[in-house]
Amino acid sequence: MQKKTRSLLEELDTFYVEKDKHHLVESRASNVIQSAIHLLEVIDRYYDQETAENLQRKLINAIRARDPARFNRTIRRQDEDQ
Known about the structure:
Number of domains: 2
Number of strands: 0
Strand content: under 5%
Order of helices and strands: HHHH
């Protein structure tokens, strides 16, 4: 039953994407941007200014490189140093 459900959901998702690609992209982009803004605010709150600027730069670079591990390594190193 799970396989049928997943298949049905995938089919609906495909139909939705084909029907309204622009709305999907806009909606997902809005969610990602709002989440990123919240994350930047959290970074500002918990780290000193110099560290926060470095982490924000690393976050943006990780997004550009499409490599989340890049940012995760930076956070781990930062937490180890403290």
